Amino acid sequence: MARHVYSCPLRWSDMDAFGHVNNVTFLRYLEEARVDFMWRLAPGSGSDAFTGGVVVARHEIDYLKPLVHRHRPVTVETWVTEIGAAYLTVRYEIKDEDALYVRATTRIVPYDLDQGRPRRVTPEEEKFLTEYLEPDPVTDTGKASARSAGAAGSAGRAGRPEGAVTV
């Protein structure tokens, strides 16, 4: 299993009044790493994966340690923990050699911009994502995570809050 590694620079403006990187800024770091992974890396590998668009359906972030401004970048590792019929789950760690600052998860839905609605994960996208598929030890209960392994987009529904929508 591979992880995408993104070197993310810190900006002076990332700090808040408390002298550490603001919590909202971490979302921007995740976005930078995700865009680098999905839109630069995918086409660079000969794939046109996700060039039609995606939407973020959910973010979940655990802030583990304050990060203060410095000149050296942090590392954002990105990998896939779940591939459904019409969504994928991406995990991240923001860290350096000394500390782990953030663990996060994003639920992403492929989106047809022309039609204005969600669409299914294409076989080409699934093939690309499978290279970065790593079961999530927190949520994986022994079930396969990829559609090709038989999950067919149903993995993860059991732990979803009542009333949550499956896409």
Notes on the structure:
This protein is of the alpha+beta class. Helix content is 18%, strand content 29%. The protein has 2 helices and 6 strands. Strands 1, 2, 3, 4, 5 and 6 form a 6-stranded antiparallel sheet that branches. A hairpin with a 4-residue loop joins strand 5 and strand 6 (117-118). The longest helix has 22 residues, at 23-44. The protein is globular. The relative contact order is 0.20.
Give a nutshell description of this structure:
This protein is an alpha+beta fold.
Order of helices and strands: EHEEEEEH
Q: Estimate the strand proportion.
A: 25-35%
Quaternary structure type:
single chain
The N- to C-terminal Cα distance equals: 26 Å
Please provide the count of β strands.
Answer: 6
Helix fraction, binned, reads 10-25%
Query: What is Rg?
Result: 16 Å
Helix/strand/pairing category: alpha+beta
Averaged pLDDT, please?
A: 83
* 3D shape: globular
Question: Main sheet, how many strands, which sense, barrel?
Answer: 6 strands, antiparallel
Q: Unreliable segments (pLDDT under 50, ≥5 consecutive)?
A: 141-145, 148-167
